[in-house]
Amino acid sequence: DSGVTQTPKHLITATGQRVTLRCSPRSGDLSVYWYQQSLDQGLQFLIQYYNGEERAKGNILERFSAQQFPDLHSELNLSSLELGDSALYFCASSVTLEGHEQYFGPGTRLTVT
Amino acid sequence: GQQLNQSPQSMFIQEGEDVSMNCTSSSIFNTWLWYKQDPGEGPVLLIALYKAGELTSNGRLTAQFGITRKDSFLNISASIPSDVGIYFCAGHRGYGGSQGNLIFGKGTKLSVKP
Question: Of A23, A78, A94, B82, which sits with the fewest C-beta atoms within 10 Å of its C-beta?
Answer without folding.
Answer: B82
